[in-house]
Amino acid sequence: MGKLLAWLGGFGRNDRAAVALVFGVSVVPFMLAAGVALDYSRALDLKTELQAALDAGALAAAASRSLSDDQRITLAKTTFTSNFRSRYGVEPVPTVTLVDGTVQASAAAALPTTFMKLAGIHRMEVGANVQIGVPGQRDAEIALVLDYSGSMNGLPISGGRVKYLSMRDAASRMIDDLTTGEGAKHVKFALVPFSQHVWVSLPGSMVVGEKPGTTWRNCTQDRKYPHNLTVTSPDPDDDDTKWGQPLHLYGTRPCGPYLSNGLVVRPLSSDHAAVKRQLQGMTPYDMTHIALGFEFGWHVLSSSAPFAEGVSESDRKTVKVLVLLTDGDQTEQAFGPAGSETPEDGERNLEQLCRNAKAAGITVATVAFDLGQKPSTVERLRECASDPEKLFFDARNGSDLAAAFDGIRSKVQEAIFIAR
Q1: Ordered DSSP codes for 203-228
Q2: Alpha helix (H) residue ranges in 237-342
Q3: Is 308 helix (H, G, I), strand (E, B) or coil?
Q4: How many helices and strands (H and E) does the chain possess?
Q5: CA 140, CA 311: separation in Å to the nearest integer?
Q6: 203-251 pLDDT per residue, tens
Q7: Could you tell me which residues come within 8 angstroms of residue 248 by beta carbon, excluding any fewer than 6 positions away?
Q8: Which end of the chain is more exposed for a tag (fewer CB within 10 A), N or C?
Q9: Could you report the per-residue pLDDT of 171-196, keeping only the tens digit for each?
Q10: What's the predicted TM-score (pTM) here?
Q11: Whole-number Cα distances in Å, 140 to 143, 171, 239, 320, 321
């Protein structure tokens, strides 16, 4: 700094050109402007840190069961303190209150300035606030769309447990975490185990060649394009809109093992114990049709026939979440435009299904499990997620998978409870 001042002073003493003096006078505002930008950048960083810690504290207070108001307030403050890690030497104390079943929290800090001191501003006030409803404010409908193709019976490349067992346990823990206490009244789960096909019960009017008034139970592939990109109910007079299409070239393996392996679509249900029992009994079989799994996952969340367990999409008190997990590329053929039937059609269909579901208000979380050597599918899953930074998870082993489902659980809780 001394050299800089001496150098600037030299300009002031230089009488050989007026431009030297002009430069010496004008450089100070430029330096001050740069310093102000730096101070504001530090303030924004601090606000982000405050908000994250405040969210964590208020969410802990709201989501915890059977606590008094005083206990919730104490928990919010201690959680805030344990999560706040500022680089700027400030120690804010949060203010927490409970009003009409809502945790209201705020925090502020006086950030010492650096360059702005030259303008007489020694501190910048930085604050954040959040409101989170105590459990019961919103409901959640969650479809677990899980890959049960044959490769899930193997071990991850990095080692560890059989893949489908890690998936089963991580999904079961998430169900437990979201349905304890009062949460049991507000969360429904559906299961869509997919491989080459899905096994499902459907009205006969929605299946090719079946009679109205009957119930059809069997495995099916996707509907004809473009009906396999929507949740529009089948038209009884148009076979292209129905399931039970003639099998693709690869579709020569029997359907019986889907039922015997427990790979049956379960519509949305509040019977969480039954959902977990089915998870415990399912075992892998056959090839991989990711787009088909997503298609049925969206259908079970929809209020359109053939599934009527979901609330209307216009119900703003309910969060609809589709969790998609796969460990492989699309290997089964899918129906595409102009009569095409290729695995590549399935890849393109998945991309469009993701866009369509998100546009319809579905929150999509995706998990790439042991897909390190399949970058195109990893990227497709990343782009499919509603938030590629927060709702896409690249899991290489069982520990990563457990962390992924824990992250999804956390985001579901935020979606249910947080309202700024």
Answers
A1: EGGGBTTPPTT-EEEEEE-PPSTTGG
A2: 256-260, 272-281, 290-301
A3: coil
A4: 10, 13
A5: 10
A6: 999 999 999 999 999 999 999 999 999 999 999 999 999 999 988 866 6
A7: 221, 332, 333, 334, 341
A8: N
A9: 999 999 999 876 688 899 999 999 99
A10: 0.72
A11: 10, 16, 34, 6, 7
